[in-house]
Write a structure and sequence with these properties.
4-stranded parallel sheet; 7 helices; alpha/beta; about 180 residues; 6 strands; two-stranded parallel sheet; about 35% helix
Length: about 180
């Protein structure tokens, strides 16, 4: 939201299958039985909502297998952001086929590592629409949490700060990394 506002883009709606509010914009929440069905229903709702309208705007699909599926079903132009697990993880043939189709239809695909970009190109996706940039760090806030420089790496661990640039959900095992 901050990036769009800084670029002076108007945010008209946020559609989500997740709970929770987002800043001062009240999200439109769609949830039916489970997330996959919710992503499909949300795609159908967007398809109906935008029937007959010019396709001059685009959706940002955060994740190919979730909101990417929504965007794909909606028929609207979209940018898909992936973080690697959808491409680098071990998945079945149907999952890989669906994700590849979703990414093929995307106007652009954003990734957060050069390696993920290389893998996308190696599976036949257009190199010109894959954009790599790192996300998740607000560099303006790093100085306020910088560790004590007098502390050696082998010193008192209670003075260290950890900045994670990834989702800290349990399956990412961030505690193990720390």
């Amino acid at each position: 939201i901050e990036i769009y506002r800084d670029a002076e883009h108007k945010i008209s709606n946020i559609f989500t299958v997740h709970s929770g509010d987002v800043d001062d914009i009240k999200p439109i929440k769609i949830f039916f039985l489970n997330k996959i069905l919710s992503y499909v229903i949300l795609g159908l709702i967007l398809k109906i909502k935008f029937i007959g309208r010019p396709k001059t705007d685009f959706l940002h699909a955060h994740g190919a297998s979730g909101y990417g599926l929504t965007a794909f079903i909606s028929g609207l132009p979209y940018i898909a952001t992936i973080y690697g697990s959808e491409i680098l993880g071990k998945h079945g043939a149907i999952y890989r086929f669906v994700v590849k189709k979703i990414l093929e239809r995307a106007v652009f695909i954003t990734v957060t590592s050069d390696y993920t970009k290389e893998v996308l190109i190696s599976i036949g996706l257009d190199e010109n629409k894959v954009v790599c940039f790192h996300t998740g760090i607000d560099f303006s806030k790093l100085d306020s949490i910088a560790p004590d420089t007098n502390n050696s790496i082998y010193g008192d661990k209670s003075t260290y700060n950890v900045v994670s640039i990834r989702n800290c959900a349990p399956h990412y095992r961030v505690e193990c990394i720390i």
